[in-house]
Each structure stands twice: as C-alpha cells, then as structure tokens.
C-alpha cells in the first residue's frame, strides 16, 4: 500500500518563493476552498508533476514555473511503501529529479527516462493514467473511465488487476517469435545448402568410380595447354627484351648528353655575365668624361680606344652566345628524344613483368592439376577421401536437421506462450473472474447513491445499463449528474479492487470540484454519507467552491488565497 504523507512546492504556477506544505495524511476528510485562481487545484498539478513529470491539467512544463520569479521551481512528494520511506524531488530551472529512499538518494547513472520508468514500474507500480483513475477525480482534465476508448479502459483494468505484466511479456514474446522465425529460416537454408553438397558429393564419387582416366586425360590436356601458354609468354618476353635492349643502345649517350647540357648552360651563364660587364664599361665610357674616383678628365684618345675595344668584345660575345644557343637547342632535342625512349623502355619492362606474372600463375595452376592427377591415379585413395568427406557432410546434415527441428519446437512453445499472453488468453480469464465482482461493486455503489440501475461491463469493457423497467441504455444516454454518479461508482470500485489486489492500494483520494458540477443536493448528501461510511480510514481531499454549504461537513479545512499575486495557505 502507498501511504502519501506530504506534498510541498514553491515557485510552482502561482506559488511564490515560500514552500506550501500540505500534510496528506493528517485528516480523513479535508475540504479545500478558495476563490477562483487562488491555487486550489495547484496541489493536484504539483502532486502529478512530482510523481509523473506532468501536471494534472493540460499545462506545459515551461508554464509551470512561476512567471514572476521564473526559476527555482521545486516540488517534493513524500510517501511510504511498506518499511521504506520515499521522497521525490523534481525541479525546473534548474532541472532536478531525485528519488530518495530512507534518506539515501538512488543511483542516477541511468537516463532520466529510465529513472522515471524505475519510479513508475518498480516503486509506485502505477502510471499517470491509472493514478488519475484511482486517486484523482476532477473536472479540469480528468477523463472518466466510461469516456475512455475500449483499449484504454482495458489498460486501466489491467493495471488495477496488476496483470499488465502479461502485455509486456506479449511484447517481448513478439520480438522473440520474430527472431525465432529468422533462426528457422536460416536453419532451413543451412539444411538445404548441406543437402545440396551431399548430393553433389555423391555424384562426384559416382563420377570418380568410372571416369577417373577420362578426368586424368582431360587434366593432362589442360596442363599441355597451360605449358603452350607459358612457351608463348616466354617468346613474348624474349621479343620485348630484345626491343628493350635495342632502345637502351639508342640512348647509351644519355649521361654524356646530360653532362654536356649542364656544361652548356654554365657556359651560357658565364658569357652573359661577361657580356653584361663589357656593356656596363661601354656605357661608362660613352656617358662619362671625368673619372668619378680621382675627378680627373679622361683622355679622349684613351676613351675612344676603350669604347672600340668594348664594342668589339660585346660583338664577339653575342656571336659566341648565338652559337651556344644553337648548341643548347640541339642538346635539348636529343634529351627529349632520350626521355621518350626511356618511357617506351619502362612500358616494355611493365609488359615483361605482366608476362612473368602470368607464367607464375599458370605454373601454380599446373601444380594444382598435377596434384589432382596424382590423387585420381590412386582410385582407392581418391574414393576414400571423397567418401570421408561425404560422411562428414551427412553428419552435418543430421545436425542441421536436429537444429531445424529444435528451432521449430521452440517456435511452437513461443507461439503457445504468446497466445496465452494476448488479450484473448490468460488476461481475459483473469478479467472474466473479476468482472462479476466489478459489476457487483459498481451496482452497489450506484445504489448507495440512490441511482438504481443494472450496470454491466462485458469482457470488452462495453457497458450495458438497464433500468428497473428493463429499458436498455448506455453511458451517454444519461444526464450529467447521472454520469457523475456512474463515474464515482466506478472510481470507488477501482479503489476497492486495488485493495483486494494490493497493487494500487493507497490512502489518498482527491476530488476536484465534484460538488460544483452536476451533482444535486440529494446526490451530495448521499456522496458525503459514502465518504463517511466507506472511506473513513482514508485521506480524502475535496476541492470545492461551495465552501459555505460544506464547511460544517468536514473536520479539516484548507483555504488558499492570493496575496501580492502569490498563492498562500490562509
């Protein structure tokens, strides 16, 4: 049983920096009152957010933080299960999610989603939908059981009966069946493959018994053809080698030409330097009359002699340069021809390598064929080896057949188990056992609220409602007040079933604005009588706007009010 002790929150919705602290197990019946917008229903949102990371009403996470402080939103929920005391701490800005058990925080290594899953499945053993069907009944965002689709109705009942484990097992079995189908498919393929090898080996043994000599002759012809190919490749190698040698002889002067080319370029550089020096001296004598060093006049005869001398040197060097350029051009042409020849030689070398590789591969092929001929020449040895291989293949075939049969047997077990885990299996049998009890409790609760009809749920959780006059109705045929009586009756039934199963048994029941809806005065009195008689040992919170008419019916009152734009307990 879950005994909820306390919920406290701050900076949550309209709540300010100071914690609002609500003791959930203080009184058997507590009336919660306050004006519209005072923050009465905030306790529901805080409780659901603390446990399930979502508000009871349709409120986004960012909207839960107080819009004035905009940070440090914290919700704490304390409860006891057996001997263990738990506290859940959840916050926004910054994000916080902590689970404390007996003052020790549980390991948070797992992802937040897994942490939440651990809280719901291992600790609380209920989820948001079942919590809002068994613990909370409200007009804000509550969807009554009768307004759920049949598949969701079934989920709620399975959770209450603690049989949703069968749905999880069915999901797991579905994957296992799929994997088993793949194993069977693979085992069939392996069996067919080995069976094909066995047939081929049998045919091979039969062929060896009568056709050994024919096979030997065939393989010898293949060897002869291979030897012919080797001879042809060798002739090609000799031919290409001769061509390569001839080309190498054509470029025997490669080193000499390279050296000459370097010498000519060096000589060209020296002549250019010498010519440049003479041109500089010539320009000096042509443009200067005085010596720049000693400041004396240059003799005209000496100047004329030097000018003629330098001009003759320049002409002489230009002539030599012209001859040198012709020699360089001739040398470059020869080098280009040598490079082209070397490329052809490299191609010849690559061709020779390919021929030699082909010869090597053919030699390997010939060795294999010669070994096969050797094996075929010994009939007993050849047949014995092939028979041994056949025996191995037959053993593999037997083993593959055993594996195939085993996988198919396991598939049959899985199919049977999955059939039992499906909605039409064990769960239906369990639900059918509880359906009469559920219907009996629902009708008893309806009678306690002066609503005398015969209400029946079938195993598909579709309702049949008959009046005293045997008229047949459904849920939507009734007024809002009558629908509310049905919703309350089903809520109390789920709580009683949960107590029987001890799976979702809890001390807490919160009713949000139930008395402010369609329940008339007579229905209100009857419902208060039910609270007093049937829920005397539980902690019931009733949120209502009708505080003036109900205040004398409750031993404990919580009043919320707005003070300086923040919610507080008055």
What does this protein structure show overall?
The protein has helices at 42-52, 112-124, 128-134, 150-160, 164-250, 254-287, 300-377, 379-421, 426-448, 480-501, 521-534, 547-550, and strands at residues 2-10, 20-23, 29-33, 73-81, 84-92, 96-101, 104-105, 136-138, 454-457, 463-466, 472-473, 508-512, 539-543, 556-563, 566-569. Helix 5 runs antiparallel to helix 8 (379-421) and helix 6 (254-287) runs antiparallel to helix 7 (300-377). The chain contains 12 helices and 15 strands. Strand 6 (96-101) and strand 7 (104-105) form a beta hairpin. Among the domains are: 1-125 and 504-570, P-loop containing nucleotide triphosphate hydrolases (Rossmann fold), CATH 3.40.50.300; 211-381, Helix Hairpins (Orthogonal Bundle), CATH 1.10.287.
Order of helices and strands: EEEHEEEEHHEHHHHHHEEEHEHEHEE
The averaged pLDDT comes out at 84
* Residue fraction in strands: 5-15%
Q: Judging from the principal axes of the Cα atoms, what is the shape? A: flat
Rg is: 51 Å
How many E strands? 15
Q: For the largest beta sheet, what order do the strands appear in spatially?
A: 2-1-4-5-6-7
Low-confidence stretches: none
CATH-scheme architecture of the domain at 1-125 and 504-570:
3-Layer(aba) Sandwich
Q: For the record, what CATH class of the domain at 1-125 and 504-570 applies?
A: Alpha Beta
**CATH superfamily placement of the domain at 1-125 and 504-570:** P-loop containing nucleotide triphosphate hydrolases
Major β-sheet profile: 6 strands, antiparallel
